[in-house]
Structures
1.
Amino acid sequence: MPAQETDTTQSELLAAQKELRDMQRAVIALRGELELAHARREQEVQQAVAAGQDEIKLLKATAASLRDALEQAAIAKDAQVQAARAFASNEIAQLKATSGALREQLELARINAESGLQAARAASANEIAQLKSTAAALREQLELARLTADAGVQAERQRAKDEIAQLHASIVAMRETMDNRTGRQ
C-alpha cells in the first residue's frame, strides 16, 4: 500500500509539473506574440515617419526648384519686372498657403501617429496586465491543486493507518480467541 501511495503521489507530482511546464510554454508563446505585435506596430510608425520625411524632402526640393525658376525668370526678363513681381508674389502666396496646409496636415499626421502609438502602448499594457493576471490565477489554481492533492494524500494515509490499526486489532482478537480455544482443549 505505501509503495502504491508513493507511485500515485509521484504521478500526480509529475502531472502537475508537466502542467506547469505547459503553462510556462504558453506564457512564453504569448509573450513572443506580444513582442511581435509591438514590433509590427513600431515598424508601422517608422514607415509613417519615413513617408512624412520623404514628403518634406520633396516639398523642399520643389520649393528650391521654384525659387530657382523665379530667380532665372527675373534675370531673363528685366523688361517685365512688374509682371514677374506680381507672378512671384502670387506664387509665394500660393506656396505659403500650400506650405501652411501641408504643415497642418503634417501636424495632424504626427498627432494621429502619436495617438496610435499611445493606443498601441495602452493596448500592450492592458495585454501585459491581463497576462500577469492570468499567470497569477494559474499560479493560484496550481497551488490549490497542490494543496488538494496533499490533503488527499494525507486523508489516504490516515485511512490506511486506521485500516492497519483495525487489522492489528482483528489479529490480536483472533489470536486471543485461538489461544482461548487452544487453552480449553
Note: Residues 10-143 form one domain.
2.
Amino acid sequence: MTVISSLLDRLERVAIAAAILSVLLMGLLMNVEVFGRTLFGRSTQISDEFAGYFFTAATLLCLVPAMRHGRFLRVEAVINRVPPAIQTVLKVIGGIIGAGMSAVLTWTTFELAWTSWSYGTVSLQAVQVPLVIPQAILPIGFGLLTLAFVEQTALALLHRESAQETEILHGLD
C-alpha cells in the first residue's frame, strides 16, 4: 500500500506543478490575445484552441489531488448517517466503481490518442496541432485517477483514511 501511496505522492506533486503551469500559460495566452486585439487589432488565432488544451490539462491533472484530499463530490449526508461498517462497504463499492470507470476512460482515451497519432490527425485551426499532443493528457489524467481510486479502496479495506484527507479535513473543521 505504501508503494502506491508514495508513488501517488510524487506524481501528485508533478501533476499539480503541471496544472499550475497550464493555468499560467492559459492566463498569459488570454492576456496576449486581449492586448493584441485591443492595441493592434490583431488576433493570435490560437488562443481559443490552446486555452482549451491548457484548461483540460489543468482539470485532469487536479483530479488526483482532489480525490486524495477528500475534495471529490461525495454524498456526505448519507455516508455520515450510517454505521462505520456500512461506510466502509460504501467506500469500497464507490472505489471499485470509480477505479473501473477511470480505467475504462484511461483505455478509451489512450485509443483516441493512439488513433490520432496513427493517422496523423491535426486540429482544424490555423496552427494544425497534431491532436495526439493534447489528447495524450487524457489517459495520463485518467490513469492517475484510477491509481487514486485503487489507493482509496485499499485504504477503506484496511480501515484507514488517507493521511492527506485526514490532515486537510480536520484543518477545515
Note: Residues 2-40 form the longest helix (39 residues).
3.
Amino acid sequence: MAKAKKVKKATKAKKIKPAAKPKKAAKAVKLKKGKKHSGPAVAYLALGSNVGDREEYIEQACFLLEKNPNIQVIKRSTNIETEAEGGGEQPNYMNAAIAIRTKLSPHKLLEVCQEIETVLGREREVEWGPRTMDIDILMYNNEIISDEKLQIPHPLMHERMFVLKPLREIAASLFHPVLEKTVESIYEERKVEGGEKYDDELPGFKEIRTGGYDDYERW
C-alpha cells in the first residue's frame, strides 16, 4: 500500500499593512504684502523723442533694451506724433509703447532705462525741455510701488493720451491696479474728458490739455 504523501503546512499569510491615510492637502500660502512674484515680470514702457531723428532714437532704445540679457521686447506699438507739452516752443514728439518680459526688479529696470537715455544723449538741464529719448515705466506686473525713486503705476499715465493711445494698441485689456480699470476704458474716458474727437488714423494725434503740469517724470 502506497504511503500517503506528507502535505506541506500552508504558509501563514503575511500581514498586510493598512494603507496609509492620505495626507491633507497643503493649505494655500498667502503672499505677504510686498512679496514679489517669482519668475520673469511683464512690464510696459513708454518711449518718447523730439530731437533729431525721433524714429531712429526709438529704434535704438528698443535695440538697447533687448540687448540686455534680462529683457525681451514682446510687443511694440506703432509710433505716433504728438505736440510737446510744457517747456515753451519745441518740436513735436514721436511716442511709442512696448511690452517687455524681464528678470530685473522694478528699480533695476529703472536704472537700465536711465542708462539707455544717457547713452542716447538725454540731457536733464531744462524742465520739460526737448530730449533725444525718454523712457518711463508705466506698469510692472500688477505691482504698486511708491518711493523716492519710483512710482508704479506711472502716476500720470491715465492723464496722457500720448501714453494711452500706443499702450491701448498693445494692451487694451491691461488692468490698472489703482484705478481698477482697463487701459481701454481709461482711454475712452480721457477722450470724453478732453472734449475732443480723435481720429485714431491721424499721424498727428494729439491731446488738448488744460491745467498745470505735474513735476513727475517731465517728458
Note: Residues 3 and 9 are 18 Å apart (CA to CA).
